[in-house]
From TrEMBL:
Gene Ontology terms: biological process: D-ribose catabolic process
Origin superkingdom: Bacteria
Identification of the protein by name: D-ribose pyranase
Stored InterPro entries: D-ribose_pyranase, RbsD-like_sf, RbsD_FucU
Length: 129
């Protein structure tokens, strides 16, 4: 039985299948569904868990080389929210692109973790280093 780290067996399984340069998506509650990729839905209620909760939980055992976000994130959120994401992604190269272009990356991902986050455009595509 696992005592620390990620306890969710579906997330553990998903993470163990990510290899060099594969991508993983962490998405908010309203993110579109792609039937061709595995989705682990851990949404509970509005705001729980958040994209940052999941990022902070997976980051210790997932080497992230790059990250992508929608450029609309910056104009849709306040300074504190933007700072929280920058801090959580410290040391990782972040590319921002229009949301419609960002979504074109999704079908190539190994999987998607859906959260209950209500932060506008909080979705992340993470590439394994």
């Amino acid at each position: 039985m696992l005592k620390t780290g990620i306890l969710n067996p579906q997330i553990n399984s998903l993470l163990s299948r990510v290899r060099h340069t594969n991508t993983l998506v962490i998405a908010d509650r309203g993110f579109p569904y792609w039937p061709q990729i595995e989705t682990v839905d851990i949404s509970l209620v509005d705001g729980l868990p958040t994209v940052l909760d999941v990022l902070r939980a997976v980051r210790p055992n997932f080497v992230i080389g790059k990250a992508w976000m929608a450029e609309e994130f910056a104009s849709s959120n306040d300074d504190a929210t933007r700072a929280s994401f920058e801090q959580a992604l410290e040391g990782i190269t972040i590319t921002r692109q229009p949301h419609n272009e960002f979504k074109q990356r999704i079908p190539h991902a190994i999987g998607l973790i859906r959260t209950g986050d209500t932060t506008q455009y909080a979705n992340l595509v993470l590439e394994s280093a």
